Amino acid sequence: MSEFWTRRRVLVTGGAGFLGSRIVAKLRDQDCRHICVPRRAAQDLRVEANVEALYRDFRPDLVIHAAGNVGGIGANRNQPATFFYDNMMMGVLLLEQARRFGIGKFVVVGTICSYPKHTPVPFREEMLWEGYPEETNAPYGLAKKALLVQAQAYRTQYGFNAIYLLPVNLYGPGDNFDPERSHVIPALIKKCLEAKETGETSITCWGDGSPTREFLYVDDCAEAIVLAAEQYDGIEPVNIGTGKEISIRDLVQLIVRLTDFEGEIRWDTSKPNGQPRRCLDTERAQKLFGFRAGTSFESGLQQTIRWYEKARKAAGGERSEDP
Q1: Angle formed at CA 50 by CA 81 and CA 237, multiple of 5 degrees
Q2: Which residues are annotated as catalytic?
Q3: What beta strand segments (E) does 81-150 contain?
Q4: Distance (Å, rounded) from C-alpha 137 to C-alpha 49?
Q5: What 3-state class would DSSP assign to 201?
Q6: 20 to 30 A Cα–Cα from 92, which one of 104, 141, 150, 171?
Q7: What is d(CA 290, CA 80) in angstroms, rounded to the nearest whole number?
């Protein structure tokens, strides 16, 4: 435990969600006794008056902004304006009001989707501005990247301590398995398990399987964010990941094996592949605040599959709600 957290009042936006709940758990492990988790139903953070009231009532010393409207390729294609507006407005208002209230530190949780479509692997933080993001999630990625500009501008003009982190694709127990909004790992797990239950002889996957992705276990990401919040005060963005990539084709084969699905894998090449490759250079995080991911990919997948199997069984085969 760190004495840094004992007396601090910490606001965690998105603190009831997939990543945010893990951040809150890590803070409690560090004996953080004053944590505020705003709930969307009661406090819409796209409304300035709500953000003002939240800061005025709780008076945080530190804000971790982990809230976001997120989804997979399909959701981003269908709702690009919503993804842009919601993520932009929440971030801009939270940062501006934090500056006005004199909050000591602000942690922005950005996204790997902000990188240019054809970024050379491994992605280094200085490459963020060398091109346009992959088209299917560009509105979301650009809204998040604009918060880096805002954070750096506020540091320059006001001396405001805002840091910016770039987590890679996350996975783990409690992920969103809704087929309309899920990312690739929960979508594949769901397909394989449902195919087994119904006796289907094949599953269909988007694209051709050639893109690569890097994945980070959600608890590891939460650990990195808490470490950075305590130890990092710099102006430069920092990647959060494992530094290891896997092709979608190999990922499918791995999940098929771990779920014991014995059917055929079909590829729908009429669907988009998304960004060709994603893999981070993670040296900056290790150097600046000592973060190195500790969960092996196969172990993390096994834990995720077990969690979802139990959730499906508890719900009688229906999708459980994201926590």
Answers
A1: 60
A2: 140
A3: 105-109
A4: 29
A5: coil
A6: 171
A7: 36
